[in-house]
């Protein structure tokens, strides 16, 4: 499984060894981390990846990706799938950046790349959500092409669907 490259970012598929280092908070040899990485969300995603690896093996392309800057290679956040596509071809995604890298369009850029990748893998629908007060995340999903799909008392839901 190769890296996904955008104009400013590299989405690096996280290995189990890298996930263990993220959980431990230890970058390891040659891994550059931006200040504040990993975030709590990155640690949770790494734990989910390790759980998937233990339960059913490497989730392959439907795992986690470290978001790295193309210019310096430092990890600035993460984006990924909560698991493989279900029987209807639907996946759920998540993403996040360290505080110092927010507001620069990186999250939308990374999410667009992940959406394009999911579509190329035959996925028919991608879902995501954010707390009602997380307007920045709502903007990220909208900028990446996702549309509001409902809300409850706590969360706004987004999705994008392809019918071809």
UniProtKB/TrEMBL annotation:
It comes from the Bacteria. It holds the Pfam family Acetyltransf_3. This is GNAT family N-acetyltransferase. PROSITE patterns: GNAT. It comes from Actinacidiphila acidipaludis. Residues 9-163 form the N-acetyltransferase domain. SUPFAM superfamilies: Acyl-CoA N-acyltransferases (Nat) (SSF55729).
